[in-house]
Amino acid sequence: MTRHLESNATPADATRYPAVALIALGLAAGYLSGLFGVGGGIVVVPALMLLGFSQRLAAGTSVAAILPTAVVGAISYALSGNVDWIAGALLAVGVVGGAQIGTYLLARIPKGPLFWSFIGFLVITVVSLWIVVPQRDDVIALNPWTAIALCVVGVITGVLSGLLGVGGGIVVVPVLMFFFGASDLVAKGTSLLMMVPGSVSATIGNARRRNIDVRAAAFVGITACVASPLGLLTATAITPFWSNVAFSVLITGVAIQLLAKHLKSRRAAA
Known about the structure:
Strand content: under 5%
Oligomer: single chain
Distance between the termini: 37 Å
């Protein structure tokens, strides 16, 4: 019989979990990645923790699994002409630098005000998704000021990722639509492209610290790659309005998850 992992689970312990659970998790994460242009970590990390992984091991395994998913998702969107390569590269430069700043500040600044500011941003985003609907032929108008702004957005996204552990797509997709004039599909495809270099860097770092269960990451990542194009097909088939509605539901779920984690940590500290 499979024994549940304790909170201090190691990669060796994690191999005892059945492949079927990891495959199901990968299919769900991959579909959400293709549908919304997010990494899928918002599903993978809590699910792995429910299976018994420690938070650190779950986070490291999730990042490793997201890497091939982001690559396949970005390629899928690119083949349909829905990736802005320059914007994605500028965002990626900012994210990589911002993530380092975020991890540096993690133990040095109070996260309370930042956390509630981010929750406020999510609430405003949800409301905006019901009001502002992008057109499918919208594109990002690149100029020097736009390029600088994209780098700044990348840095902010990276800092939030390092401080709060949130995925970049939750921030980048709505920002590209509302502030840079991207269509919903271009925003999602560009978001996935942005995630690739950051995922490579984080995976290398986690591997050095042995914070990855290779077997779990392989099962989740490979099956996510299979499901990601199905998410893209769904994203293409539905209208921008219904895409916004679905994305607003996802963001609401993320906000609830973050609030629950925040309140739990406060009770534990009391």
